Amino acid sequence: MPKPSRRVLPTVIGVGIVTTLAVDGAVLVSWRQADDRAERPVGVQRYVAASTGTDAAAVQVAPLRGRVTPHLLIAAPTTLPPQVVERVRTTKGVKRVEVVDAAQAMVGGKRVGLLGVEPSTFRAFTPKPTAESDALWRNIAGGDIAISFTMGNDGGVTLGSQIPVGGRTRQSQLRVGAYATMGLSDVDAVVSRSVARALGVPTGNALLVSASKRNAGAIAKALRKKLPKGAKTVEVSPELDIPAPGGQVPAAKGEVMTAEQVRIVIRAAYSRLGWPYVWGGESEVEGGYDCSGLMQYAFAQAGIRLPRVAADQARAGWIIPYSKARPGDMLIWANDPTAPGYISHIALYIGDGKMIAAPRRGTVVQVQRVYTRNLKGAVRVNPRLAARLAASGL
Question: Are 306 and 296 in contact (CB under 8 A)?
């Protein structure tokens, strides 16, 4: 079958901006985050690499002094001028702003979203286990790269190994200093800003904004009027409203899949049985599927567009208790130990306590019994909402 079309990747996924890495001038094509985790208990500390034999141990970073939640992402093709950054900082409802460098890069042979950050300040914008690890941020400050838990665990990138990072034709070797998910969809790699500059990543072309959660949409609208042409503003990983086990199913108002669409989705998922789990796989071209790539493929056969990663697919409809799930719903898990609550795995419910899933590296697409560890509920897909999210890049 032909490979699904992929739009040219924005500066940071979710923002419609094309960017390049100066190291080779090549426009980098979108490669979205894969996500999956089997039902296995894990600890957090083991995902920070030892510093022995590197300069990272001697690097100091400021201690964590409280965490903030990022609500908005602003990104542009080039450096955002200081006066623009100041206008954002002083906008009513904005609590804190962090300047970052953002681009798509080749990391260990995969195209992923990469950020260049100031470790001492950016850590406050990350999930608690990630934010609290001094060793993790020392490693990044010392020149290491941190990759998302799923890229490392299910992408087969070994902690502590040296991997190539950069453009498609010119790259540098960096040590994988940690597995650490930043809680930002499609951002799979983080380096220091000095390393980012050496790689050719655009400097200061993106902002993370912590704002009033209640008025994030209105603040985003106000900010758009203050930004230069080409800059974009989107909401960052809005929190999911996870229902209680005995919760009620929201009124769908007819915006759900038809019975025929449900049959097509399930039949399409069945047709992929036996295909290998491949991190980032979304078609036969990659030789297999990851969990969210499988969902995207199956729903596409019924004419339903889904976003690419599990964290975004979870927002493509109504989240309902698993006890209310019916065939055609998606099931979601928060299995990532470095980012509690972040949806990192997804599967298709087919009824009778069973699902079709692409479990993890080393397995194949298969029918499984539903497991409840870290299960957050089911998603009843709203095709119209799903299409809007897919079109916006969220």
Answer: yes
Asked if pLDDT for residue 156 goes beyond 60, the answer is: yes
Residue range 265-277, pLDDT digits in tens? 999 999 999 999 9
Residue whose pair of structure tokens reads 């902690």 in the numeric block:
159
Structure tokens at 39: 């039902």
pLDDT in tens, 72-130: 999 999 999 999 999 999 999 999 999 999 998 999 988 889 999 999 999 999 999 99
d(CA 159, CA 152): 7
C-alpha neighbours within 13 Å on the C-beta side of residue 209? 30
Q: How distant, in Å, are the alpha carbons of 148, 204, 217, 273, 280 from that of 267? A: 32, 46, 38, 10, 22
Q: In which residue are the tokens 């990138």 written?
A: 157
- Asked which of 6-20, 168-182, 362-376 is least confident by mean pLDDT, the reply is 6-20
> Can you tell me the distance from the alpha carbon of 113 to that of 26, in angstroms, rounded to the nearest whole number?
15
Place of tokens 């008025």: 215
pTM for this model (two decimals): 0.82
Residue 196's nearest CA partner among 129, 232, 146 is: 146
Residues of the chain with CATH 3.90.1720.10: 259-392
* pLDDT above 70 for 50: no
Q: How far is CA 163 from CA 51, 102, 160, 369, in A?
A: 16, 19, 9, 37
Amino acid making up residue 8: V
Partner residues linked to 368 by β-bridges = 355
Q: Is 177 helix (H, G, I), strand (E, B) or coil?
A: strand
CA distance 2 to 323: 38
Separation of alpha carbons 105 and 169, rounded Å: 11
Amino acid occupying residue 329: D
Which CATH superfamily includes the segment(s) 259-392?
Answer: endopeptidase domain like (from Nostoc punctiforme) (3.90.1720.10)
Q: Is 211 exposed, middle or buried (0-12, 13-18, 19+ CB in 10 A)?
A: buried
